[in-house]
């Protein structure tokens, strides 16, 4: 019997992953997609074509599916969705949760799902939307070995380029690793922003800095360099909403406080996140860190 997949959440990562699952996942039936804003799911389905079907409710998406993936914009959204889901009969289903949430919430959610007779794999990912679209994510599946094994065929070459297999580890281990990785991500964006602002303030052409970054530090460094120099960090629709990044940063800072860890460079990046959020609102983009560094250096937020 062919497995039916569903994907909950049509943010930048969710759209990209569900598209790749639909087109590259060797599915025997169209993937079912759901989003709290129905129009967003319909628009995405139209772009994917006949390989995707829209569910009008989260209950419908879950009821019709065997494996249910989710990538949601906040911890609160994850909990709200699963509160609704777990009111229904979910016995025998497998949930693959890709959102960035705390280890404690991940483990608690996993326990609730298992107690309801279903299976749970925590699988946060590393990579921003353009990388997700090109199937260049790094996936972190964690949980009991058997359900992780069932997810693996949908990963390499379908939604990602690398897998850090945490089979047999508590699900929260994946969320823990994602939070630690966020320290590197935010500091990477901060370092690219500072380099570009220093160049501008000392009359070095941005194109030269971008060429250097692209050659020496390809990948995310180059992607964010392009977003800053092109002005895309001020685009009306963010690729990664700064409100979501602010929530993750709060989780990281709480983890550091609880463990007695001093994150000096990370605190600087967080200060610029707060400045960018104040300028552009929660719907601003994380690359707005560049705008914040510009303002601190006597330039305008926009380039």
From TrEMBL:
Entry GO MF terms: NADP binding; oxidoreductase activity
Record domain 6-phosphogluconate dehydrogenase NADP-binding: where: 5-156
Pfam families: NAD_binding_2
Entry annotated with the keyword Nucleotidyltransferase: no
Swiss-Prot/TrEMBL keywords: Oxidoreductase
Positions of the catalytic residues: 178
InterPro entries: 6-PGluconate_DH-like_C_sf, 6PGD_dom2, 6PGDH_NADP-bd, HIBADH-related, HIBADH-related_NP60_sf, NAD(P)-bd_dom_sf
Family, similarity comment: Belongs to the HIBADH-related family. NP60 subfamily.
Name of the protein this chain belongs to: 6-phosphogluconate dehydrogenase NADP-binding domain-containing protein
Species assigned in the record: Cudoniella acicularis
């Amino acid at each position: 019997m062919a497995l039916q997949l569903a994907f909950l959440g049509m943010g930048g990562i969710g759209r990209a992953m569900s598209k790749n699952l639909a087109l590259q996942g060797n599915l025997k039936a169209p993937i079912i997609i759901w989003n709290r804003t129905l129009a967003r799911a319909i628009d995405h389905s139209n772009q994917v074509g006949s390989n995707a079907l829209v569910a009008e409710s989260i209950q419908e998406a879950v009821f019709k599916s065997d494996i249910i993936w989710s990538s949601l914009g906040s911890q609160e959204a994850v909990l709200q969705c699963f509160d609704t889901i777990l009111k229904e009969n979910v016995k025998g289903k497998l949930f693959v949760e890709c959102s960035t949430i705390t280890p404690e919430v991940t483990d608690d959610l996993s326990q609730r799902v298992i107690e309801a007779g279903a299976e749970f794999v925590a699988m946060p990912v590393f990579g921003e939307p353009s990388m997700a679209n090109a199937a260049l994510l790094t996936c972190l599946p964690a949980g009991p070995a058997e359900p992780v094994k069932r997810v693996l065929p949908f990963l390499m070459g379908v939604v990602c380029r690398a897998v850090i297999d945490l089979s047999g580890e508590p699900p929260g281990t994946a969320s823990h690793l994602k939070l630690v990785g966020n320290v590197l991500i935010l500091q990477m964006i901060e370092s690219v922003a500072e380099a570009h602002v220093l160049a501008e303030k000392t009359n070095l052409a941005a194109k030269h800095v971008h060429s250097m970054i692209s050659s020496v530090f390809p990948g995310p460094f180059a992607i964010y360099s392009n977003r800053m120099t092109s002005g895309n960090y001020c685009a009306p629709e963010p690729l990664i909403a700064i409100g979501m990044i602010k929530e993750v940063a709060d989780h990281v800072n709480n983890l550091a406080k609880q463990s007695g860890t001093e994150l000096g460079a990370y605190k600087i990046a967080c200060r610029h996140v707060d400045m960018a959020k104040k300028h552009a609102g929660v719907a601003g983009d994380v690359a707005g860190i560049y705008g914040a560094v510009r303002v601190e250096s006597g330039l305008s937020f926009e380039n």
